[in-house]
Write a structure and sequence with these properties.
This protein is an alpha+beta fold. It is built from eleven helices and 13 strands. The strands form three sheets. Strands 5-4-6-7-1-8-13-12-11 form a nine-stranded mixed β-sheet. A two-stranded antiparallel ribbon has the order 2-3. Strands 9-10 form a two-stranded antiparallel sheet.
Length: 335
């Protein structure tokens, strides 16, 4: 593949709000859950939220849209973008396009990308490409398959998730899972970087769209058991497909997946033979942050990747949708 055809990742950033919902906090909500119950089922110790903690205690966020939000989704996205740009070593003026997604956009219109771009101080074409929790794979898949001549020098992909704003904290099935955060990456086809995309895949099954949904103005809902089975099955299938495309075994290299819950992730790793030191995750400390989860893991481990490393990243989401990418780290001057 020529330099003009490759998609390079120049920088990654992440942000999580300050307020923490630990398992003791959830126990105090008196919704029929305990630390032991949570850890056995989903392996999550704590989550971060944009919401006021006292307001959650008082209202359980049972009415969508009335909760007290302490940092906006756009502000989180802007903070993630700032980190990604700093790591990429480029200025805001260098960005020609912003692609965004969110499982819980603050506005039905305009495009979430426009709201985040304004907050981040980016004067660029802004558009949403959203497939729920698989949105990061959708972003990279679309950009990977666009000719270099059709892309500006640098594109920012940003995913801010204020998902707790649509979480019913009276429902332990979702309250124990969801957290908030943001992630951003800077990509280019016109400028080389050590981290490059080798292969991408993106698929969907629209006939099952009702299994995971947030109807406008309502709480997030999922058919938990069947969705977890789907997530495990499609994550494994996508991983194996990427192995075929790469023509090499990937299970001894780094693996990042959708940060749904640690129980699901451990099951996938066990079935694929991925060793613990190659499984990168943050769901135990930040909860399920929707589409921001997997790219935030990539960002949190940014400094440890070195020439010769491979990363397989696979995500699943509502739709139902699933996808992934194989990433290779080359030398600084390697095209």
């Amino acid at each position: 593949m020529t330099q003009q055809q490759r998609l390079y990742i120049h920088g990654a950033g992440h942000y999580h709000p300050d307020n923490i919902i630990d398992n003791a906090f959830l126990e105090d909500l008196d919704i029929g859950t305990t630390d032991q119950w949570i850890m056995e089922r989903v392996g999550i110790q704590k989550r971060h939220t944009v919401l006021d903690l006292q307001d959650i205690k008082a209202t359980h966020n049972e009415v969508v849209g009335q909760a007290k939000v302490q940092i906006s989704s756009a502000a989180m996205g802007a903070k993630a973008i700032d980190m990604a740009l700093a790591r990429a070593g480029i200025s805001k003026a260098d960005v020609g396009m912003v692609v965004a997604a969110s499982c819980s956009p603050t506005y039905s219109l305009p495009a979430n990308a426009c709201v985040v771009a304004k907050e981040a101080g980016l004067d660029a074409f802004a558009v949403d490409i959203s497939s729920a929790c698989s949105s990061f794979a959708a972003h990279i898949h679309f950009l990977h398959n666009i000719h270099a001549a059709a892309m500006p020098d640098y594109v920012v992909c940003v995913i801010p998730e204020s998902w707790t704003t649509t979480t019913n904290f009276s429902d332990r099935r979702t309250a124990v899972l969801i957290g908030d955060g943001a992630a951003a990456v800077v990509v280019s086809k016109n400028h080389v970087a050590p981290m490059r995309i080798e292969h991408t895949v993106m698929k969907s099954n629209p006939s099952a769209w009702e299994k995971v949904q947030t109807k406008t103005g309502h709480h997030f809902f999922q058919d938990g058991l069947s969705v977890q089975k789907f997530a495990i099955k499609k994550t494994i299938e996508t991983f194996k497909l990427l192995e075929q495309q790469c023509n090499t075994a990937l299970n001894q290299h780094y693996f990042i997946s959708h940060q749904a819950n640690l129980t699901m992730l451990n099951s996938v790793c066990s079935k694929l033979g991925i060793p613990a030191d190659k499984h990168l995750f943050n769901v135990d400390q930040f909860g399920n942050c929707g589409a921001a989860g997997a790219p935030s893991v990539l960002s949190q481990h940014w400094q440890q990747f070195k020439a010769g490393d491979r990363i397989t990243l696979v995500v699943v989401g509502a739709g139902l949708t699933w996808g992934g990418m194989s990433i290779q780290i080359g030398a600084e001057n390697e095209a």
